[in-house]
Amino acid sequence: MDYQKYIELSIIIPTIGRKVELDKLLFSLKNAVLKISYEIIVVDQNEPGFINEVISKHSKELNITHLNVNFKGLSKAKNFGTSLATGEYISFPDDDCIIFDTTYDLGLELLKKHDLDIVFGKCVDDSGKDSVLNFKKVAYYLNDKNMEGGFVEATAIIKNEIFKKNLLFDEKMGAGCFHGAEEGFDWLYRILIQKNTKVYYDPSVKFYHPQVIMSKGDIKSLKRVFHYRCGTAYLCKKHRFLLKFYKRLILSLFGFLFYLIFNRKVAKYYSVEFCALVVGWFLYDKEKR
Question: Where are the strands (E) in the chain, listed by range?
Answer without folding.
Answer: 9-15, 38-44, 64-68, 89-91, 98-99, 118-124, 140-141, 157-159, 199-208
